[in-house]
Structures are given as structure tokens and as C-alpha cells.
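[Automated response] Your request has been received and processed.

Submitted sequence:
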Amino acid sequence: MINISSMFAKSPFKPLRDHMDKVIESIAPLKEFFEALHEQNYAKVEEIQQQISVAEEAADTIKNEVRNHLPRNIFMPINRRDLLEMLDMQDTIADVAQDIANLLNLRRMCLPEELCQDVIQFVEKAQSVCYLAQGLSREFGDVLESGFGRHEIKKLMEMIEQVSIAETEADDLEDELVRKMFEVEDKMKPVDVVFWYEVFEWIGDLADYSKKTGSRLRLMIAHN
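Generated structure:
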């Protein structure tokens, strides 16, 4: 059992950092997952799917412990509701990663060869946005410990802007991928086409919820 009160006593932001670290464990194998899917290495696909599920379940455990045991009188500069909303946004990243792995392990759909590298590139970009969001989580702890020092806030705001820019770049890759999909739809099973568009949207959600995590941090700072 995780002692959340004790964790907050040691560091006000530690439980959220620990949660984000588990979230990142859930998205880290996704590039390898898509490569294995392309190579039709379904044993590897299933192995990675299980790995992602374990990380997502660990993130859920931390999330539920925070929700159930978060003291109401901790670090007054931070709004409790904002903190819990940020927790939910982080957790959604892991949920989406699990959705992607579960669907593709179940259906094991193949893409036309001309789209494979574009999908891998899109996945890598979405992952990079998540990694930037992980950096935000760590940096915000420094902001709290500095008592909202100007230097620390400036650095965090610059990092939030980097996440926003990277998420826009991920959107652009998704738009290009969808355009290319239109051109090759006739080579694919109609049902697979529908599911692949869903997968593309989910990959984009990884970046989108990373950006939303940054936006929530921006609001927290604005309230102080």
C-alpha cells in the first residue's frame, strides 16, 4: 500500500511525478510495438502489449491512492482540484497507450508498406511530446520547492511552450498521415481503414493530453 500522505510530506509533488514516470513506462515501448506489428512478430506484439498493461495498471494504482488519500490541507498554494485534474490528464495518456496496444494486439492489422515509416515517425513524435510533459512534471516540483521563484517559473513556462509547439508538430504529422491514407484506402480492408483512423487519433491523443498537462500547470501558476 502506497502511503500518499507520507509521500506528500517528503515532497509536495512526488506522487504526481511517480505517476507520470509510470505513464511514461506505458508509452515508451510503442515504437517497438509498431515495428513488431509491421514485421508480423506477433509474439513480440503480445509481449509489449502485456508490458504496457502492467505499466498502465501501476499508474492506475498510484492515481487511485492519490485520489483516495490526498490530504485536504497540503501545500496551500496548489488548488486540490487542479492537481487532481492534472493527475487525470496524465493518466489518460497511459489509458490511450493501453487502448492502442490492446486493439492492435487483438486485430493485428497490417498497413500498406508506403505508410509504415510515416506511422513510426508519428509515434516517435507523440512519444517525444510525452517525454517533454514528463519534464514538466519534474520541473514543477522545483517551482514548488522554490516558493514559485521567478527563474523557476520562467523555465517552466518555456518548457510548457515547447510541449505546445511539439504537439502542433504531431498534429501536422497526423494530418499528413491521414492524407496519405486516403490515397491507399483501396488497398485495405474497409474495416481495417476505420480502425486505423481510430488508432491515428489515439496516437494524436498521446500528444494532446501531454499538452493539456502543460496547460493545467500554466493555470496552476496563474493562480499564484
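Summary generated for your ticket: Residues 1-5 have pLDDT under 50 and may be disordered. Residues 38 and 69 are 43 Å apart (CA to CA).
If you did not submit this request, please reply to this message.
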